[in-house]
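ok, trying the design again with the full structure, not the truncated one.
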């Protein structure tokens, strides 16, 4: 009798352990790397996605990171999503690549970003994405491109022809970190580093004086309208690469037409925030502000505060 009881106890324990293992497996995020979302000639445009537990059966809002690097370096693996603590927060998260300036001049870069957003909508069921709740974020060149995503939803010239054109490239929330937003002559004269001006020249395929029309088309401030999505802007007050004017003029333009916009000037910080231990707000606070912004504007509840 005792032996039978022991056998039953062992069997029950094994069932419980198996159930717990299955539950733990179900609670894990799913990472999918190198998804081809478009192809330009032989050039594959790739993205990485992290699906939260429950996807794709359940739909979640998405947050997509667009990398920086002066439009001339980086790819979809230069992703700050984990660093900013955005994984595991009830979002599908991801990062995308785009053609660099040495591969193709503007507007190739924004066309690729828009192709990625359209791809996500076209494949929303496959990846568990709510197509009506997509946010984007990025810093520097990535900040420039997400600002364009926020302001150019209805500009057909910037859509490109990389597929899924029946879907919208509109986004519902934008976090722009120290991104250039104005390539006018007045704005460009405020740059002090020749290397940065060279990056803009490479992006445009000529100097801003030679490419005035294209420079305007590359400037998010030129497309601001009242239906632009909620926008959060960060810039360090000691940024020597991108002048503070770039964030100020973008903020003022959005505010003027009634867009829900917040501009955080980060004291004691330069171009980026990770290496500035005395910044105000702190790096930790900035990361929390980004998370709170996307929670609020993409409809994800955070933990209850005591």
């Amino acid at each position: 009798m005792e032996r039978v009881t022991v056998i039953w106890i062992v069997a029950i324990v094994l069932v419980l352990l198996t159930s717990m293992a299955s539950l733990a497996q179900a609670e894990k995020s799913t990472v999918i790397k190198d998804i081809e979302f478009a192809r330009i000639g032989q050039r594959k445009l790739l993205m990485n996605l992290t699906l939260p537990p429950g996807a794709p059966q359940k739909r979640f809002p998405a947050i997509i990171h667009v990398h920086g690097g002066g439009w001339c370096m980086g790819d979809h693996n230069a992703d700050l999503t984990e660093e900013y603590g955005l994984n595991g927060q009830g979002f599908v998260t991801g990062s995308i690549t785009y053609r660099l300036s040495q591969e193709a001049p503007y507007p190739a870069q924004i066309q690729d970003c828009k192709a990625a957003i359209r791809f996500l909508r076209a494949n929303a069921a496959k990846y568990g994405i709510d197509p009506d709740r997509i946010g984007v974020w990025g810093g520097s060149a990535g900040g420039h491109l997400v600002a364009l995503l926020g302001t150019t939803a209805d500009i057909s010239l910037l859509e490109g022809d990389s597929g899924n054109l029946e879907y919208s490239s509109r986004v519902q929330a934008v976090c722009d970190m120290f991104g250039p937003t104005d390539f006018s002559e007045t704005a460009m004269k405020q740059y002090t580093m020749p290397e940065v001006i060279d990056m803009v020249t490479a992006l445009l395929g000529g100097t801003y004086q030679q490419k005035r029309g294209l420079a305007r088309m590359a400037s998010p401030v030129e497309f601001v309208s009242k239906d632009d999505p909620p926008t959060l802007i960060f810039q360090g007050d000691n940024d020597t690469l991108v002048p503070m004017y770039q964030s100020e003029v973008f903020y003022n333009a959005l505010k003027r037409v009634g867009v829900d916009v917040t501009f955080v000037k980060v004291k004691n910080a330069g171009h980026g925030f990770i290496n500035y231990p005395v910044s105000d707000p702190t790096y930790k606070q900035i990361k929390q502000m980004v998370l709170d912004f996307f929670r609020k504007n993409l409809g994800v509840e955070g933990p209850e505060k005591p």
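Keeping the full-length input from now on. Residues 76 and 205 are 23 Å apart (CA to CA).
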